[in-house]
Amino acid sequence: MKIQGNQFLSIERLQDQYLNAGRQQTEGTKQNGLSFQDILSGKTDGIREEGEVKFSKHAANRLVDRNIELTKEQVERLNMGAAKAGAKGINESLVIVDSLAFIVNVPNQTVITAMDQTETNENVFTNIDGAVIM
C-alpha cells in the first residue's frame, strides 16, 4: 500500500490508479495488431481459416512440454481428420496423425490435448465418441 505524506491514499485515488493501470496493461496486450492468442497459435494474420483447428491453452502447453513439433502437412491432416469427424457427427474425436494422438472437440474445432505414441498410457483413450486415423 502506498503512503503519501504520512497519509494513506484515498480509496478513490487507489481505485483510479489501479483501474487505469489495468486498462493500459490490457491495451498493451496487442503488439503489431496481434493478440496473445494469435501469437500463441502462431498466426500472423490474426484470422483462423474456416475448417482449421485451434489449440487450447492446455494442448499448446502439452505440445511444448512434450517437445512435439507439427509440420504443415501434419496440421493439414489434423484439420482433415477433424472435418471427417464432424461429417460423421462425432463430438469428441481421437485423431491420430502419424505417431501423434489428438483429442479434438469437433463442434468448437479445438484440440483439447496432444500426445505422442510413447505417452499414451496403455493406448486407452476415454471421453471420446469416435476416432479418425489419418
The secondary structure category is alpha/beta
Distance between the termini: 57 Å
Rg, Cα atoms, Å: 21 Å
| Average of per-residue pLDDT values | 78
Outline the low-pLDDT stretches.
25-32
What string gives the helices and strands in order? EEHHEHHEEEE
Enumerate how many helices there are, as a single number.
Answer: 4
Spatial strand order of the main sheet = 3-6-5-4-7
Sum up the structure in keywords:
134 residues, alpha/beta, two-stranded antiparallel ribbon, 7 strands
Can you give me a brief rundown of this structure?
The chain is an alpha/beta fold and 134 residues long.
Report on the architecture of this protein.
The chain is of the alpha/beta class. It has a domain at 49-133. It has 4 helices and 7 strands. It has helices at 11-27, 36-40, 57-65, 72-87; strands spanning 3-4, 7-8, 54-55, 92-97, 100-105, 110-116, 130-133. The strands form 2 sheets. A 5-stranded mixed β-sheet has the order 3-6-5-4-7. Strands 1-2 form a two-stranded antiparallel ribbon. A hairpin with a 2-residue loop joins strand 1 (3-4) and strand 2. The protein is elongated and about 65 Å long. Residues 25-32 have low confidence and may be disordered.
